[in-house]
Structure formats: structure tokens, C-alpha cells
Design goal:
single chain, alpha+beta, Tetrahydropterin Synthase, Chain A, three-stranded antiparallel sheet, 10 helices, about 45% helix
């Protein structure tokens, strides 16, 4: 190795996650300057990122966590190109480190995730770029955040789906988790019907009218039938009106009212990777 020691290579590999040969080459090119070698590896990441800019990063890790007093929850999605990388323990560890740091640093907004500083002094954006060079795939990161009187998070098995839910009052941890699981399982579009945009409502009404027309229903009855089917749409696609997954005889709203008369959901986030 000449003037480049095995310990220097090992140190650089530990910090960057790059392969032994890549670390050795970077140190040789940098004449043993450790910081310069780190920059060389980052530039490699920039080159890989530029080459793979048009690729789709559809695989990855989606995880979530609440802070100690359950008043803020953060969800991150660290995306890559292949399932092979997504299941790699080192890749999952990087995602977990970013999430843990975001929670402990009290991340102020989802957009701030890129500038968040990790324990090694690198920003998340720099870490993502570095890993792009190490892994050789397009790597992307995004975050979601909610803050409320109480929040809950849920990670589905496999780290491909996670949810966050905000509540207007303090409730039992299991109750909050049940609702977070509901969001994961039933994929609602909004908390209640007021959260459904007018474009979606108009589209559902038109679909319902067309369907009724095809069924031979009288023209004067189409609007009434369409609004009836719209109510069914609300029951299936708004969280509070959905049948509760643990007791189909109740809606989620009724389940929450059983716990506390005024308890309700204020917001939720759901992020999942496509199969």
C-alpha cells in the first residue's frame, strides 16, 4: 500500500461505507489526505447520481418514529433502485440512523431532512450522495412529519409501508396504534369527507351516474343514485367513516368515541412502496 496504511483504509471505509479498493484508490489519489479522500468519494457519488438521474428509485425503506412524549412523529422513505439494496442491513441501518437523528434533533419540517447533520458531521444530503457512489444506484430521501396533542406511528412488516396519525387529545397507546394500523391497512384518502377535494367528488358522481345509466336506471333518478353511491365512497375512503378493522360493526369514529367522547383524528400520513 505504500504510504497508505491498512488502518487508514479501514477508517475511511467505516466512515463512508465505500469498498476497500475504492477507499485505497481515494487515499492514494489524495496522497494520504483523509478529508480530501472523503471528497473524492463524494465526487464519485455525484458522477453516479448524474448518470442515474433518469432511473426510478422505487424500492427502499420506509420507517417512522415518535418522540419521547408522543407529540411529534417523523416518517422517512430512503429509496433505491433494487430490492437487493433495500434489504441490505447497512442500507436499513443508514435509514434508521437518519430517522433517529431527525427525532432527537426535533426536525422542524419535512423539507429540513436534507440539511440535517448526522453524528459524523455529514448532512443527510451528503450521506445520500455518498451512498449513491458506494452502492451505484440512484438514492433518494423524503420525509413526512406531524405534530399534535398526541401522535402515533406504525411500521408494517418489511419496512415498505409506514403511517403517522395525529389526535386532538391524549389517548391510550394501543388505541392510537390501532388507528395507525387502520391507515396502513385501509389506505384512506382523507380524515373525513371534508378532506375530499371537489375534483374527486365530481369524478365519483359522474362515474356513479354513468354506471346507473348503464344499468338502465331512469334519468331523473341518476343524481339521487349517484349521491347514494358517493356516501358509500365516503364510508370506504375516509378514515373516520371506515369500518374499524378490529370490529367491523363500528366505524373508526365510533371506536374513538368509545374511548373519549371528543377524541378524534386531526391528520395522518401514509407512505408505501409500490409492489
Amino acid at each position: 500500500m505504500g504510504n497508505i496504511s491498512a488502518s487508514d483504509v479501514g477508517k475511511l471505509r467505516k466512515q463512508t461505507g465505500s469498498g476497500m479498493m475504492d477507499c485505497k484508490k481515494a487515499l492514494v489519489e489524495a496522497n494520504g489526505d483523509f478529508d480530501l479522500a472523503v471528497d473524492i468519494l463524494r465526487k464519485k457519488g455525484q458522477k453516479v447520481a448524474a448518470k442515474r438521474a433518469d432511473r426510478q428509485a422505487m424500492e427502499g425503506v420506509v420507517i417512522a418514529k415518535t418522540n419521547d412524549d408522543n407529540s411529534k412523529a417523523i416518517l422517512i422513505s430512503l429509496n433505491c433502485e433494487t430490492d437487493f439494496v433495500a434489504k441490505n442491513e447497512d442500507f436499513i441501518a443508514i435509514a434508521q440512523d437518519i430517522l433517529d437523528t431527525a427525532v432527537s434533533a426535533d426536525l422542524s419540517s419535512a423539507e429540513a431532512i436534507h440539511d440535517l447533520k448526522l453524528s459524523n458531521g455529514m448532512t443527510v444530503a451528503e450521506k445520500v450522495l455518498e451512498q449513491t457512489g458506494v452502492i451505484g444506484e440512484k438514492i433518494e430521501i423524503s420525509a413526512q412529519l406531524i405534530q399534535d396533542v398526541q401522535v402515533s406511528s406504525y411500521i408494517h412488516a418489511g419496512n415498505r409501508l409506514a403511517t403517522l396519525v395525529g389526535f386532538n387529545a391524549i389517548t391510550d397507546h394501543q388505541v392510537a396504534r390501532d388507528v395507525a394500523m387502520q391507515v396502513a391497512a385501509m389506505s384512506p384518502l382523507a380524515v373525513d369527507k371534508d378532506g375530499i377535494d371537489q375534483e374527486t367528488i365530481d369524478r365519483e358522481l359522474e362515474i356513479a351516474k354513468d354506471l346507473a345509466r348503464q344499468e338502465g336506471k331512469p334519468e331523473e333518478m341518476l343524481e339521487k343514485i349517484a349521491f347514494g353511491r358517493l356516501n358509500k365512497f365516503y364510508k370506504e375512503n375516509t378514515l373516520l367513516n371506515q369500518a374499524f378493522i378490529k370490529d367491523g360493526k363500528k366505524t373508526v369514529a365510533q371506536y374513538l368515541k368509545d374511548q373519549h367522547d371528543s377524541l378524534s383524528v386531526t391528520c395522518f400520513k401514509r407512505v408505501g412502496l409500490s409492489n
